[in-house]
Amino acid sequence: MTHRLAIYDMDRTVTFTGTYTGFLIHVARRMAPWRLILFPGVILLMLAYVLKLITRQRLKELNQALMIGYNVERAKLMPHVESYAAKVVAENVRAGALEQIARDRADGCRLVLATASYRLYVEPIARRLGFDAVIATDHLSQDLRYVRARIAGENCYDTGKLRMIKAWMAAEAIDRSSAYIRAYSDHVSDAPMLEFADVPFASNPHKPLAKLATQRGWTRVDWD
């Protein structure tokens, strides 16, 4: 029996813009507005990442600690997570992506959202968009009372994302030889995921991915 999967990146693939910085600002504004004066620190941390002084994973952890807090009670945080998810779906989702998601669903595909963004807010977005599963960056002690500014395992990015997709498939008893996979992404960091797919789509690609897609013969789609 063939498992039909449609695997989507989220930021700038399904959405118009990235969601992580917006998440930090949205939550800080509602939980502790005074933290907004610390936002220049986010910019400095990004510079440190660009200069390769810290890893991408550490960048995310430090930004969360700065703008939201190192330990935040989940019950207090989640209403703001839900309101942010509603905002993203209302204001930041491409109509063309919604149409493709509907087509994949009609084709009998299991819809999977695979993203480097935090599961914490990706799951409410995915639920609103009708996805069946989420593969995302997890917080340490994901299901405990407090949300910590620490990542559990890998950041769901680049080759790490592909490893996490493979691990999810194994947990779901989906053998690659019996799976038909469509994959969608805007960014060249998802080349490992796209190469893994039977039908890869360069979706709203930035220049490096557009160039790679031309070289590999991958289909390009541009969604409004």
From TrEMBL:
Name of this chain's protein: Haloacid dehalogenase
Keyword flag Transmembrane helix: yes
Gene3D superfamilies membership: HAD superfamily/HAD-like, SG protein - dephosphorylation function
GO molecular function: hydrolase activity; metal ion binding
InterPro entries to which the protein is assigned, alphabetical: HAD-like_SerB, HAD-like_sf, HAD_sf
Pfam families: HAD
Entry keyword set: Hydrolase, Magnesium, Membrane, Metal-binding, Transmembrane, Transmembrane helix
Transmembrane segments annotated in the record for this chain: 32-51
